[in-house]
Design brief:
Length: 805
Amino acid sequence: MITGSTDGKIMVRRCLVTFKPFRIFVVGIGFFSLCFLMTSLGGQFSAKRLGDSPFTIRTEVLGGVESRGVLRKISDMLEVILKRMDSLSKLDNTSSTDARRLDELSSAINRFQPAGLVERIQAIAQNVSNMAIRVEQILQNSMVQGRVVRDGTSSQCEVPRDPRFPECPGKVDWMRARWTSDPCYAFYGVDGSDCSFLIYLSEVEWFCPPLAWRNHSSPPTQHTQQAKPPKRQAAFRTDLSVLLDQVGAGKESLSFMKRRIRRLTQQWATAANRLDAKLEQRWRDQKKILVHVGFLTEESGDVFSPKVLKGGPLGEMVQWADILTALHVLGHNLKISMSVKELQGFLGVPPGRGSCPLTGPLPFDLIYTDYHGLQQMKQHMGLSLKKHKCHIRVIDTFGTEPAYNHEEYATLHGYRTNWGYWNLNARQYMTMFPHTPDNSFMGFVSEELNETEKRSIQQNKVNNMAVVYGKEASMWKVQQGKEGFLQILHRYMEVHGTVYYETQRPPEVPAFVKNHGLLPQHELQQLLRKAKLFIGFGFPYEGPAPLEAIANGCIFLQPKFHPPHSSLNHEFFRGKPTSREVFSQHPYAEQYIGRPHVMTVDYNSSVEFDSAIREIMRMKVEPYLPYEYTCEGMLERVHAYIQHQDFCAPEPPFISANLSRQGSAGGSRMTGPLFVPLPNSTALSWASNVTAPTAWPPLSSLRLLVSQEGQSCVESCQSAGFICEPAHFRFINNKEALHGLEVQCEVVDSEINHILPAFSVVRRECGLQREPLLFSCAGHSPKYRRLCPCRDFRHGQVALCRDCL
């Protein structure tokens, strides 16, 4: 056996024992870097001397980015060295020359002394690099000179040429050249030999065939099918104390979220009891759920937390607080991550730089994150992200359309942006408002008033009081005619603002405005309960504040955009993965609430604006909150998604010829039409005498329409009083649908295009969709009419069809 490696191994083992209690706290400096420094500085650091703990070293050493990078490099190299030393210690018949070389390594390590610490660290890094090369040479020589018998067979392995695994030889070549580029390979037992490469590539990854001489009774790795644990029933929760502890502390953003959770505790409890009664105690699977709030991690920059008390945007934090609460109240097993380190721990990410898959099967049924978190998962999950992405739900405020989501299509057709291109099912993106039917509508909640509170508000409204929507002074800058309509408003009403300032009144706010400064939520509510009008300047888009104002009895007045704002003409939307056109500041309020609670006017017309203000002063409205933005509405919606949406189960191809008629002898094949006309409608529905395939939403909700040229299915379905349902596209992407709509086709092609299925009236050409990820409600073309899968929806809950619960 090799004995020369003993000293070097003892040094590293000593570090393992010494620093193990502190390991969880070492953030900015690699663990093995600390060990290396401790030994190289003459053993002057001791676990018993807390003053010289890892915290001391961190303070003294980490003076800049350069030194941190050097320390990370040392850490990674020492991880590899230790792994190689372990391999060397197992080898027999090694020459005394090799042992002497390892002695030299050990003595070289012990010769380092502190002098000009950062400069010495840089020198150490170079020496460690040299040591790594020398250990590699020793290892290779030892393996050539004499190898032990491993697992009952010689460790000399030939690279298989198996047509079922065509990438195997290339992957082995890559491993030979690059296996030291990430410590995770050594973590999985790779030691530089072809045998270790093949073991890794067949058992951890899946590019090579299993080795016949390996013991395959060992615990399966992440690409092996796992036995599913028994299902557990979810039970509604009304105690939020455990959730509040899980959210954590230390940031103003987290404090804001916890205050919101506490304030709405009673409303969540009442909603849980109502939904429990509505569902009649039916079984609900309890899911293991990870929530990783990427935009609040330090690694993403977290620009939100410092602005919470300075008028910054709160919409995302409102939504995340409500998502966390809904998942907890629904009774699911919840883990919350607010840092990359927590994410790695929860997922079982191996040490290193993210090149390797997870150490085992995914420990969660669902993962809720955002675009920042998705990027972090890609960095640290390696190949596992592609395998497990069906479990992910992306909270996405403004939506992601299919053309932007499909990476290859987006790149080839000009839809590539800094976001999007993840090749998810578009319904895995979850929006704040139901503006993109291709995505799922997650939403948030507003506080619901009881009848006593509603009567009190109506009695105490100040008829000539207006509150301006805009907490940041920049929103008040005199541009685009703001001074004109503010002067008109001032003629009729007392104008109030809630603009943040530190010492002096913001100069952008006119002198006639009574500015209250940034108000806590309960004080803002009191202000809104007195005010008659809540007025928007055109920005921010689609925030929660207008719904809160309407729920407190205000009329919301907002500007009409002409032309509509989009990524083509407005900087705010540029780069976002959507072509959606926004016709007002808050399209949901305009479309789904409307008059008398919402008025949308042209601010550039002083006559129209003046008329709107005078009309508002004459109107009386009651507080109003759409059901889908109540606690019960959100619980109902999230419950339905969790129990019914499954993007991991493969969808079998829909073949209409395999369908059968209900009540026919022996289930005879279908011979009549698949789609039949609805009474008093141009829409078609699924034939009631044809057995419908299992689907969610169920096919009983399907309403098949054809759009006008240049019209999207979003618009076509809305104009008929329905909602476009992307899950139904696969059932209408066929000749039967074209025949049912009496479309004349001389040619029927199958292509990859986000406007398909569609047809050209002039050319009599019909096209069906070949790529399911590109089924799109949003797509439109001036040359084509589209086949649109619409559906009905529940009153006050546009996300769910009538039979969806």
